[in-house]
Amino acid sequence: MTGSRAPAFASDLAALISARDAELVDIPVIQPADQFLDMAGEDLRRRIFLTENENGQSLCLRPEFTIPVCRNHIELNAATPKRYAYLGEVFRQRREGGNEFFQAGIEDLGDANRARADARSLADAIASIRLVAPKAELETLLGDQAIFEAVLAALGLPRGWQKKLARAFGNPGQLKSLLADLSSSQKNGFLPDRLTALVADSDEAGLAAALEEDMQVAGLSPGAGRSPHEIARRLIEKANLASVKLPAQAFAALETFLAIRVPLQTASTHLRNFSRANEFDLGPALDQFEARVVAVREAGIEQENIVYDAAFGRPLDYYTGLVYETRALANPDLGAIVGGGRYDRLLTMLGAVDSIPGVGFSIWLDRLEKIAGDAR
Amino acid sequence: MTITLALPSKGRLKEQALEVLEKAGLKVILPKDQRNYRAQVEGDSKIDILFLSASEIARELGYGSVDLGVTGEDLIRETLSAADERVQIEARLGFGHADVVVAVPEVWYDVSTMADLDDVAAEYRQRHGRRLRIATKYWRLTQQFFSQMHGIQVYRIVESLGATEGAPASGSADIIVDITSTGSTLQANHLKVLEDGIILKSEACLVSSRRSADPAGVAALAQRIQAAMAHG
């Protein structure tokens, strides 16, 4: 199934991951494109190989495995918990270098014990690297979306701001410019006189009725896109936000938080101290974080260099908790050898009826081959 | 060695491009047969004039199959990836002005900036189970502006082949990215441009290909036209 172009260690690696209680699945190379664009966003379009079938349906060469593996699970209506392993080619457009890469990984679906599943995912990922590059000096960066969201909630920020900042997690530039925006006030743009009073009175129903008339004049169908109620609600929300400012103290606390970068073993203590100093209650997010640290210790990978970085995240809205990536210290330019994370929202977004938690990782085999060669 | 200079094949752009060349002392002898797409410059056998559509000019400059061309900056940036590595803008010619803009329905009173649009796009998917749709002919410019400059990921581009401004009313898209010169078409369709929604202020430009086989000849010709522009 891997063909002759796969690295020499591919079959050993496939044996290792499938021996870790995961069913090796075969995913078709040609995939419907929309599922990837819907989940990862339009930016992916220029990086995948797109084509159309005769009916005009967009198809692409498999750019990654997580989404099709999860889709496959939903379509088969398979029982959970369930673990899937894969090894095969993915296709990405790049300006330089090749366009075909081998990836392998494990997707762990439906394990209710999230701390244990997270630790297991990390242990599986690191064991996969160690199979091929036993001596390479590694650093695993670990972030947590749930902790970041708990800090935003503890700061007492309005919901709208919390959502906005949470979306920028893992994108330092965007986060910084948002914080600058929030320190100054924002207000609604031009508003016709007849609407001003309705907004000031927070009269959502009245406002929606007025907006619906405007939509009819403009020939917009009120049921097709954004509804009059959606617009009315946001107008009122914005008017209320305009009077709120991000207090200097909250701003400073957030900056202190984002600068936390410590070995995982001491991270719980750091987070406890941080929340005590600011009188925050990080609630279940911190409990979950601590349970994960314990599970990582129990998984027997504590000799590995794992660093908690409070600002590390991925700006994709299906990631919900743990995110991590492992790099080789001798090859910083190579980027991540492995990337992984928890995506508890993904299966619902892909159409699963029940909420199914999930965590997984993928390994770039070409990068792994490179560090194995260099370390030898 | 001859230099190929591509000009727009019809309309006001063609007329104005010819005027600019004439100012630089390059009188184009138009072919008697209107269907002929090649022409010569009076008294200069080293320049080949080629009439092409404005978007073809952008593409051919990218390939290097023409050395110089007159076309809109919007088409250069839309047609070519990494445009600045492949072509160079030698002169802005002062005609063919058009802005590529992000426009939303006027009734979206809560949306006046790209930051607002970011909020709306994120909420839209959660509420409607699909991405906010943008109708445009400018796929690349839209993608760069939304994803790379503003970090907005959750949207979908609906390719529009004409009358983009009608897409929100017809229900085929929620917002548009299109060119506008006076804004009157947008207004007639009850659309408004976002405060920070100007993607590109475009005009007709003299553009050279970086893949030309005769860079010195191209530079000399470009300079001659630049000098004529500078003298008005």
From TrEMBL, chain A:
| Gene3D superfamilies per UniProt | Bira Bifunctional Protein, Domain 2
> InterPro entries, per this entry?
aa-tRNA-synth_II/BPL/LPL, HisRS-like_core, HisRS/HisZ, HisZ
Pathway it acts in? Amino-acid biosynthesis; L-histidine biosynthesis; L-histidine from 5-phospho-alpha-D-ribose 1-diphosphate: step 1/9
GO CC field: cytoplasm
Tell me, which GO biological process terms does this entry list?
A: histidyl-tRNA aminoacylation; L-histidine biosynthetic process
KW Iron (keyword) present: no
Kindly give the NCBIfam families that the UniProt entry links to this protein. Answer: PRK12295.1-4 (NF008951)
Q: Do you know which HAMAP family this protein is assigned to? A: HisZ
> Can you say what this protein is called?
ATP phosphoribosyltransferase regulatory subunit
Which organism encodes this protein? Phyllobacterium myrsinacearum
Source taxonomy? Bacteria, Pseudomonadati, Pseudomonadota, Alphaproteobacteria, Hyphomicrobiales
Gene symbol here is hisZ
From TrEMBL, chain B:
Q: Which GO terms describe its biological process?
A: L-histidine biosynthetic process
Q: Where is this protein found? A: Cytoplasm
- Stored InterPro entries: ATP_PRibTrfase_cat, ATP_PRibTrfase_CS, ATP_PRibTrfase_HisG, ATP_PRibTrfase_HisG_short
**Is Glycosyltransferase found in the keyword set?**
yes
Q: Where is the ATP phosphoribosyltransferase catalytic domain?
A: 54-226
Q: Record's superkingdom?
A: Bacteria
**Which CDD domains does the record match to this protein?**
PBP2_HisGL3
Q: Does the keyword Phosphoprotein apply?
A: no
Question: Which of UniProt's keywords are assigned here?
Answer: Amino-acid biosynthesis, ATP-binding, Cytoplasm, Glycosyltransferase, Histidine biosynthesis, Nucleotide-binding, Transferase
The enzyme's E.C. designation: 2.4.2.17
Swiss-Prot/TrEMBL catalytic activity: 1-(5-phospho-beta-D-ribosyl)-ATP + diphosphate = 5-phospho-alpha-D-ribose 1-diphosphate + ATP
Using the UniProt record, give the first listed, main subcellular location: cytoplasm
User: Which pathway does this polypeptide act in?
Assistant: Amino-acid biosynthesis; L-histidine biosynthesis; L-histidine from 5-phospho-alpha-D-ribose 1-diphosphate: step 1/9
Single GO cellular component annotation?
cytoplasm
Kindly report, in one word, the top-level EC class recorded for this enzyme: transferase
Single GO molecular function? ATP binding
Q: What does this protein do?
A: Catalyzes the condensation of ATP and 5-phosphoribose 1-diphosphate to form N'-(5'-phosphoribosyl)-ATP (PR-ATP). Has a crucial role in the pathway because the rate of histidine biosynthesis seems to be controlled primarily by regulation of HisG enzymatic activity.
**Entry-linked PANTHER family:** ATP PHOSPHORIBOSYLTRANSFERASE (PTHR21403:SF8), ATP PHOSPHORIBOSYLTRANSFERASE ATP-PRTASE (PTHR21403)
The subunit field of the Swiss-Prot or TrEMBL record says: Heteromultimer composed of HisG and HisZ subunits.
What family does this belong to?
Answer: Belongs to the ATP phosphoribosyltransferase family. Short subfamily.
Q: What is this protein called?
A: ATP phosphoribosyltransferase
Q: Which organism is it from?
A: Phyllobacterium myrsinacearum
Question: Which classification does the entry list for the species?
Answer: Bacteria, Pseudomonadati, Pseudomonadota, Alphaproteobacteria, Hyphomicrobiales
